[in-house]
């Protein structure tokens, strides 16, 4: 797709994830390895961190195939709204098929770049990003854009991965990091939690699996 900044392997993010959208089982296997088989547990913990209430509007950045839509919709109820944004046409198409099959009237998925979200400022109560922020060519800019999309007091929860932080796990980084960069356009050199702190102020951070998986919960100042 023209106009997109290429990722670590020279592939535009949308094109790479278009490929993954056609091979969902392979992508599931990648996530299973990244989460060491505990994907459901970490996703549930991150969704709980949003503290969503009935009637709220929530934005998912990098929604992929819409795996989180059911949990988000359940939390905001029929009066709330869920909007998913993804740079990949294939992922958005898969997400919309999920929406149509479920018959969700208050859930939508649109194509868009996390660095230039197609939403107005101050329109969402919460935002969620699962394994997507670190795959944006400029994660810091994506965080700033999400910050702008939130109303005062809005929450942003990020579930993501980073290189192993603890020994002896760190010895695996020279092998795993290049593979992950090529497979997912991962940007491991950017400290996403630090970027969140810069934009939001304080951030609650929990790390797991040698520091490779984290859940970061940020709140926009009122």
Give structural notes.
The chain is α/β, with parallel strands linked by helices and 222 residues long. It has one domain: Vaccinia Virus protein VP39 (Rossmann fold, 3-Layer(aba) Sandwich). It contains eight helices and seven strands, in the order αααβαβαββαβααββ. A seven-stranded mixed β-sheet has the order 3-2-1-4-5-7-6. Strand 2, helix 5 and strand 3 form a beta-alpha-beta unit. Helix 1 crosses helix 5. The N terminus is likely disordered.
What would CATH call the architecture? 3-Layer(aba) Sandwich
CATH C-level label: Alpha Beta
| N-to-C CA distance | 38 Å
| Number of structurally distinct domains | 1
**Secondary-structure class:** alpha/beta
Task: Find the CATH topology.
Answer: Rossmann fold
* Residue runs with pLDDT of under 50 for 5 or more positions: 1-11
